[in-house]
Write a structure and sequence with these properties.
- The protein is of the alpha+beta class.
- It has three domains: about 170 residues, Nucleotidyltransferase, domain 5; about 80 residues, ATPase, nucleotide binding domain (Nucleotidyltransferase, domain 5, 2-Layer Sandwich), CATH 3.30.420; about 70 residues, Alpha-Beta Complex (Actin, Chain A, domain 4).
- Helices cover about 35% and strands about 30% of the residues.
- The strands form five sheets. Strands 1, 2, 3, 4, 11 and 12 form a six-stranded mixed β-sheet that branches.
- Helix 3 packs across helix 4 and helix 6 crosses helix 7.
- GO terms for molecular function: ATP binding; ATP-dependent protein folding chaperone.
- It comes from Acipenser ruthenus (Sterlet sturgeon).
- Keywords: ATP-binding, Nucleotide-binding, Stress response.
- InterPro entries: ATPase_NBD, Heat_shock_70_CS, Hsp_70_fam, RWD_dom, UBQ-conjugating_enzyme/RWD.
């Protein structure tokens, strides 16, 4: 029996297996260990992963991403209604009242549930795992955000069943990160000694999660968690995208949907290129060519409020979590940060 671990993210997902005395993240057919969380529908076929992401500009109305946020949510949920205006594809209400996604597939208009979309993505991950292991895979463990409700967790299990998985356990992402940190640590305190406190800070693409964990050899205890489900890397992207859209509107009147998709795609790529805070330049190849840029200093100014909110989130979590009266601990916690968008957030957080 083979059990795989699955991490389905807003932008990308991973599948890992235990073999050769360790944990290996499996590479897909592109020799990439991450698979984009995109599903694209065309007149004759359906694409998943990297092939789907390549169509995010050319087939934006039928290329779906970010559906992780819609799992288990009613269509009338205020969050869903606020997100509708930001999406290139259309949302619709399912007969059960949950959120569906309307698009064109095989030249027909169809509505898929968020669970079906997640199931399609997990089917791709299942194929990737089976190709790596050379045998069928049925059982899995899936990580979910710590703030997921019971309805959202049930939706994840439904999606896994659609993909043919038997989900043995849903594990909070905060717990999964702590487990990954401590499982191979050889220098952890003995069980009778004071535990080592570690603060895990994860600024993902769609959510912000912080956890405080105590480690002893062979023992892990989650002491506190905090989260902001509406703060993530996408919010930093939107600040720059809004800035680029204003400048673009002043220069030309083009297809707004195509232009917006192009700006998002280019901004994401250029930010990765200028990770150290340099100039970001977006080049749009529409009927006319446009070059729009923002300097590193202007970028800092545009994102100042979000950076301050991100950093101010940490002290209350670190200082105010309550330990049992009989629970000894070290006085200075260790910080483990995960934030690929803004290196300066890492520096400010540690300070």
């Amino acid at each position: 029996m083979s059990v795989v671990g699955i991490d389905v993210g807003y932008q990308s997902c991973y599948v890992a297996v235990a073999r050769a005395g360790g944990i290996e993240t499996v590479a897909n057919e592109y020799s990439d260990r991450s698979t984009p969380s995109f599903v694209s529908f065309g007149p004759r076929n359906r694409s998943i992963g990297a092939a789907a992401k390549s169509q995010v500009v050319s087939n934006s109305k039928n290329t779906v991403h970010g559906f992780k946020r819609f799992l288990g949510r009613a269509y009338t949920d205020p969050f869903i209604q606020s997100e509708k205006a930001k999406l290139p594809y259309e949302l619709a209400q399912m007969p059960t009242g949950t959120t569906g996604i309307k698009l064109m597939y095989m030249e027909e208009e169809k509505v898929f549930s968020a669970e079906q979309m997640a199931g399609m993505l997990m089917t791709k991950l299942k194929e990737t795992a089976e190709n790596a292991l050379k045998k069928p895979v049925a059982d899995c463990v899936i990580s979910v955000p710590c703030f997921y409700t019971d309805a959202e967790r049930r939706s994840v299990i439904d999606a896994a069943q659609i993909a043919g998985f038997n989900c043995l356990r849903l594990m909070n992402e905060t717990t999964a990160v702590a487990l990954a940190y401590g499982i191979y640590k050889q220098d952890l305190p003995a069980p009778e000694e004071k535990p080592r406190n570690v603060v895990f800070v994860d600024l993902g693409h769609s959510a912000y999660q912080v956890s405080v964990c105590a480690f002893n050899k062979g023992k892990l205890k989650v002491l506190a968690t905090a989260f902001d489900p509406h703060l993530g890397g996408k919010d930093f992207d939107e600040v720059l995208v809004d800035h680029f859209c204003v400048e673009f509107d002043q220069e030309a009147q083009e297809d707004e949907l195509l232009a917006l998709a192009s700006i998002y795609h280019e901004e994401e790529f250029r930010r990765a290129e200028s990770a150290q805070g340099g100039e970001i330049r977006v080049c749009l190849q529409l009927p006319q060519d446009f070059n729009i840029f923002v300097s590193g200093q202007d970028q800092h100014g545009l994102e100042k409020d979000r950076v301050e909110h991100t950093v101010s989130f940490l002290p209350p979590v670190v200082l105010n979590f309550e330990l049992p009266s009989d629970y000894p601990s070290t006085s200075s916690p260790i910080f483990t940060l995960s934030c690929k968008w803004l290196p300066r957030i890492q520096i400010s957080s540690v300070q």
